[in-house]
């Protein structure tokens, strides 16, 4: 099992109850399987009775347990959502993790796809996550603990509008919920699996590829760098639950969770110090690092002088863009300042990935600026300031290559 190759301990989710919608096959099945290995009890909510029961039976037989439980239901039906809630409370005392995995994938051009297909997609891909969240969130709030996971898609792919529109909306639903739950010990985040050759995906990709004038092989060839197999993508889902605290309020992908869990090494992040840096280059690095720390510290202080609404928006935007909180970044910046003050350029070099995150945020700020600054002179001046921040980061990164 791929899950055995992670840095997570078997049984680390002991005592947790996970509700996995659409867990009867594909990524949902593999995620359920990995979650049970991690120690969780998993309720597999599945519309296909045969597939759902078979999934639970296979997991229990393989892992010699009874912690995979099948519950037959159509998540688009309100009365069935209510019945599921009653079942979960009566049998398990409630759920700790609500994982919105179930989906339908209607394919076709916007003008030719039937309105019934649009309605079905809305019912499963957006309305159902809202209804399930509304039903299970109050108990999570009462206990002041829980995790809610959304599975969006934001590829804006041609001929998949009836799917993409509602799946993309899950991101904003997650963002809204994250803001409302900031002061609670309830975590919400969204995770995309990437392109995975599930049986359902293969059927729909054949239709999309034909509409695009491509063969299925040509379509997959175009996207092969982003592809995962079902088990690996499902393990990404499962390990994200075990590491949910670090993803709070974020939109991530299975690959990121797999990297964090030690399955993938990921891209070279420059954490290894170069072998040959001249004293002059070390001096350049420490000088640029001091400027970088001063810039961020001034920004950080300014954020907390804003009104509550602006401050919360900025801090959420920072975390969503960089994958870490402003407080975490401030702590890292304090470390970099200490390294610069003591001439520890080698220590600064090991902060390369952090600096890439900061550069990403400054580029994001520059992009936002173009949309709201209407005064041409101020736009030019402020753009130059942000570009200067980016240049300071690049000065350091250029010496690490």
From TrEMBL:
Keywords assigned by UniProt, alphabetized: Oxidoreductase
GO molecular function: oxidoreductase activity
Cited InterPro entries: NAD(P)-bd_dom_sf (IPR036291), SDR_fam (IPR002347)
GO cellular component terms, semicolon-separated: membrane
Family in the record: Belongs to the short-chain dehydrogenases/reductases (SDR) family.
Name the UniProt record assigns to this protein: NAD(P)-dependent dehydrogenase, short-chain alcohol dehydrogenase family
UniProt source species: Acetanaerobacterium elongatum
């Amino acid at each position: 099992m791929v899950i055995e190759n992670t840095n997570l301990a078997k049984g680390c989710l002991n005592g947790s109850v996970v509700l996995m919608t659409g867990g009867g096959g594909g990524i949902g099945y593999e995620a359920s399987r990995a979650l049970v290995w991690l120690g969780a009890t998993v309720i597999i909510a599945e519309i296909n009775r045969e597939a759902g029961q078979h999934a639970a039976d296979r997991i229990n037989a393989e892992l010699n347990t009874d912690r995979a439980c099948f519950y037959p239901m159509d998540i688009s039906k309100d009365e069935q959502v209510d019945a599921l809630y009653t079942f979960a409370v009566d049998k398990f005392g409630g759920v700790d993790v609500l994982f919105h995995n179930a989906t339908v994938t209607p394919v076709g051009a916007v003008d030719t796809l039937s309105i019934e297909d649009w309605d079905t997609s809305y019912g499963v891909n957006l309305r159902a996550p809202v209804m399930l969240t509304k039903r299970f969130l109050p108990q999570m709030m009462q206990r002041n603990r829980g995790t809610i996971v959304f599975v969006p898609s934001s590829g804006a792919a041609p001929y998949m509008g009836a799917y993409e529109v509602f799946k993309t909306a899950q991101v904003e639903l997650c963002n809204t919920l994250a803001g409302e739950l900031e002061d609670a010990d309830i975590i919400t985040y969204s995770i995309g699996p990437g392109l995975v050759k599930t049986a359902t995906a293969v059927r729909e990709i054949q239709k999309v590829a034909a509409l695009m004038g491509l063969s299925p092989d040509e379509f997959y060839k175009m996207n092969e760098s982003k592809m995962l197999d079902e088990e690996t993508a499902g393990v990404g889902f499962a390990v994200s639950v075990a590491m949910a605290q670090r993803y709070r309020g974020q939109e991530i992908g299975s690959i990121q969770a797999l990297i964090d869990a030690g399955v993938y090494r990921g891209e070279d992040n420059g954490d290894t110090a170069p072998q040959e840096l001249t004293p002059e280059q070390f001096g350049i690095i420490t000088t640029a690092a001091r400027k970088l720390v001063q810039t961020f510290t001034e920004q950080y202080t300014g954020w907390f002088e804003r009104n509550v609404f602006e401050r919360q928006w900025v801090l959420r935007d920072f975390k969503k863009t960089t994958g870490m909180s402003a407080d975490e970044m401030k702590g890292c910046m304090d470390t970099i300042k200490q390294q610069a003050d003591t001439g520890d350029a080698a220590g600064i070099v090991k902060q390369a990935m952090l600096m890439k995150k900061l550069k990403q945020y400054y580029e994001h700020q520059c992009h936002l600026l173009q949309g709201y600054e209407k005064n041409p002179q101020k736009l030019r001046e402020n753009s130059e300031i942000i570009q200067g921040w980016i240049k300071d980061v690049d000065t350091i990164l250029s010496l690490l290559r």
